[in-house]
Design a protein that fits this description.
By secondary structure, the protein is an alpha+beta fold. The chain has helices at residues 30-33, 49-69, 89-98, 112-117, 157-168, and strands spanning 3-5, 19-22, 27-29, 38-43, 71-77, 105-107, 121-122, 124-128, 134-136, 179-182. The protein has a seven-stranded mixed β-sheet. It has a three-stranded antiparallel β-sheet with strand order 1-10-7, covered by helices on one side.
């Protein structure tokens, strides 16, 4: 697996609409996922060790962000499931249940959404303000592939950034790139 870092945030980027199937067999658009103060769009998958190392802490942080700061989240799985069956829709359903997702987990079968967002790895986090302007493109924390023991909910870079965005609408100054496994592009799409 190739580890990639995300590029610096493009403050001129605005959230692009989508219509993707979720693990609950419902379709979701951008407006279905939008939060009162901000929105996290994250590209993740089931098998990536970077995602697996943070997933329980990520779910806890997202739950607290939603409760205290009206920040919603949506996860999108962009990988080619023909080449990576561990990321299949059925396995996504199981992954969401096992990790108690309280946000939509969507499959990007065509990989069109991932390309429109310029996603390059899993996990790849996009934090938007209330106007759906991109204000954060950074990491969850510095854990890499190791699960953080005794994690304090709300201590992640992502949590602090989204709290700041929800309160001010502005981007946090200190943004460190996310690192993760490269998105598994289909040979027919890219």
């Amino acid at each position: 697996m190739v580890a990639l870092n995300t590029p610096k945030v493009d403050f001129n980027f605005t959230a692009k609409d989508f219509n993707l199937l979720g693990v609950d067999n419902k379709y979701y658009t951008l407006s279905d996922c939008y939060g009162e103060n901000s929105l996290i769009i994250m590209f993740i998958c089931n098998h990536c060790p970077y995602v697996q190392s943070i997933i329980s802490n990520l779910v806890s942080d997202i739950n607290l962000l939603k409760k205290d700061y009206q920040v919603n989240a949506v996860a999108i799985m962009p990988n080619d499931v023909n080449e990576y069956p561990e990321d299949s829709f059925e396995n996504m359903v199981n992954f969401a249940k096992e990790n108690k997702f309280t946000f939509p987990y969507l499959i990007d079968n065509t990989q069109k959404v991932a390309k429109e967002y310029g996603a390059i790895c899993t996990p790849d986090f996009f934090g938007f303000n209330a106007n759906l302007n991109l204000r954060y493109r950074g990491r969850f924390n510095d854990a890499k592939k190791e699960k953080v023991q005794n994690y304090e909910i709300g201590s992640s870079d992502l949590f602090q950034a989204m709290k700041f965005i929800a309160e001010t609408g502005n981007p946090p100054i200190d943004q460190k790139s996310s690192i993760g496994c490269s998105i598994k592009w289909s040979n027919s799409t890219g």
